[in-house]
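User: Hey, my collaborator sent me this sequence without any context and asked if I could get a structure. I don't really work with proteins. Can you help?
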Amino acid sequence: MRILVVVHGFPPSAQGGSEIYAHAHARALHDRHGDDVVVLTSEQDPGRAEYDVRREFRDGLRIVWVNNTFRETRTFEETYRNDAIGAIAARLIDDFHPNVAHIHHLTRLSTTIVQLLAERGIPRFVTLHDYWLLCHRGQLLDVNGRVCDGPAKDAVSDCGACLGPAAGAGAVGFAGASAVRALERRVPAAGRLLRIAGQGMVNACFRDGATEAQSRKRLAHMREVCERVTHLFAPSGRMRDQFVRFGIAPERITMAGYGFDHAAFRDLAAPAPSDRLRLGFLGSLMVSKGPDVLLRAIAALPRGSVSVDLYGAHSAYHGDDRFRPRLDALLGHEAVRLHGPVAHEHVARALSRLDVLVVPSIWPENSPLVIQEAFLAGVPVVASRIGGIPEVVEDGRNGLLFTAGDSDDLVRVLTRLMREPDLLPALRAGIPPVRTIEDDVQAARRMYETHVAARVTPRGPAARVAAVVLNYGTPDDTFLAVKSLLASRRPFDDVIVVDNDRRGAAGTRGALRDVWSRITYIAMERNLGFSGGVNAGIREALARGAARVLLVNSDIIVPPDCVERLDRALAASPGAGIAGPVVMMRSEPDVIASLGMSYSPATGRMRHQGFGASATEQDQPAVRVVDGVSGCLMLVTRDVFDAVGLLDEDYFFSFEDLDFCLRARRAGFTTVLAGAATAYHQGGRSLDAASPRRLYFAARNHLLMAARTGPAGRGAAATFRALSIVLLNLAHAALSRGGSPATRLWAVARGTRDYIAGRFGADA
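Assistant: No problem. I've predicted the 3D structure and written it out in structure-token form, which is a compact way to encode the shape of the chain:
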């Protein structure tokens, strides 16, 4: 099997837990199963060109290193979604043709790697080592050292404080920061002064919500990334629960504890007797790991009662090095020996010299590797009662737990060990077996093989089909839409109604009482827009095993033969993943609303073909490939969702349908118009066609879609395209009816402004 492993760092240059585990996992795939493994990783070498690629062959693995020091970063978005690194990854993927990809971490790389893999139909597995996908800082620890609950499903981000005002500073701010970092490397004192002064300027100048807008944008993007992942592995229940709370369906996450190579821990010599309790700490000397908690506790214990071996190097926390002076002040204690970082091949020997390992973390750890390694060395663990730690350290059985951040409580626990001579031997006897890397890798490969075998979605008549109907303020129309679906000749396995209208939920339920037993009703806590509401229904449909999902707007009537004809159009069109009908106007049933959409990437011009023409004047082929079909009714195969994810929630309303079709095309799927299928659409029911809000969304989202689907770059072509779109929307607003011309034009101006500012989702 050809396996691409993606991780942000790799030994020997990186020695964190996720990097060590990724290395062990990759080696086991190669050594024990003969898999062809390529590792894509990053390094930070200021002496080499940015994005320079270095290749290495070691331990049977081909390793591709991408240099990223962030000195070319120009926007906050580029810190996690980097097109330059994405292009490198795309070439590697196309050259290697992996059967599967296992992603351990994407920081310093690019989240677009997930999209690239999805577009090529390559199953994508992610091990959740920390919270980076939902927390920019990765550890759910805020700037004040407090544990954060993290975002919940459908929550709006409030992470701006942790991102810092620099996130909203834009290209100029990032360019300035890059220059300051370069100066700081050469002249540290001057660089630090400039950095402090620059931070003050950023704080003063960017108070308009730009940082919070970037925070919301990152969170929405990460939700989309998670949706495009095939399956996730969580090493702890805490990690699994956090991502379920974030909105990941529980069945998409498998609990999978870390596996370890036991070889280095065999035949370790027992330590010589000592009159002191020998304590150890292995890890980065950074604030989140809590070494100061241990050192403050040591200072409170009787002199000569303990010794402490600290293995690790000082590390700033997201560039903040204020913790180091506080820690240095505690390192002078006579019981403390500072060894510096220890190479991983020497960890077993270092642990074997201890009586107890102390893990005093203050962040909600996942499942620290060092705890299991201590168990392999026969060493009990004293650890913080936080995160996933209590899942592996059982208080009183194989270790002792204390309150995170509480050095007094740690003193209590250590005092027990010194005063109760039978406690330490009992804890050693209670150490459980540790999972092997062989067992871990075999389980992962079984999952790989299952998804590789299931890549082709069934196209036969037995394929499960679900319909998702979105309601917002139109309960009577929703009832009519549902009734028409229930009369379909092609029966639905599930009809799912998503209600975006919280205030009108009682009215919606009342309108649906006659069909209540035949539908699944999902009430949203707030209006998530068309894309967000539909996505909630799609998730439910896919969780129920749907092979095809029909997206239905509430103001459409679906004739009995329509879905059957859409189904046939997909079956008759190799490579097709999306099908739509001829859409007629409900108010004028012989007038066409859409024969599919055409789109010009160069100009950004989008048109509903055939709009306003009489049906008698159009001679439609049975099936025709189009750029897109209207989201008011489209049938989508599961393959498409697996490849490109769900609708982009940045849009909120309008253009998400065309964007989705174009993303599907980039992934190799065509969109077809079924000429024999017809549906009847009212239009403008939840949002009037000439309302300022609709004009706002049209302007903003048109620009957004063009930027994401048109020719790359920021040169003359992109400028021309953006200007053309703005002029088109201004002309449309000027010619529309309803409200004053000034209000309509201002709506376009606001949409353009918010696009430039990166404010997406619901309108400001």
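In plain terms: The first strand starts at residue 2 and ends at 6. You can pass these tokens on to your collaborator as they are.
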